[in-house]
Amino acid sequence: MTTETQASKSVVNLNIEYTIVNNLLNTEVNYPLNFLSLEEVTQVQLLGSLIEILNKMEVPETSNITANTIQEAHDELVKEPILFPFGSVIKMDLTDMQNGIAVEFTHDSKIASLHPMHTIVLLDSIIKVLKAMAVMIVRKTEQAKQ
Question: What is the pTM of this model?
């Protein structure tokens, strides 16, 4: 039998907040204590798995994506101040990590009708932030070994 405390430890909710700062999309991920209390190797593995999942997400009506089309969509998105701030949650269930991680990705309801290219901009932004966190963890671990 799994207690409520055990269940809450096995579910990690990464809360993401999007804002506009100087006409740029600013993405912040809040890492909960149950994520930060994991071993650094596990944190990096989870972030790597999550990045892979987000990279493979299919967004309808988004063929021929290039860096230029992402930049153009970004520039359009930040011109919509009524949308901001808003948030997303990435819920990861770590109950049975040997057989994979169940991931659920949800946005605030106020952005339910985002253009597909704007969704790509958000995914791109999240991936960059997650990669930066993984790199920071690796560097911190390497420095601690020295």
Answer: 0.82
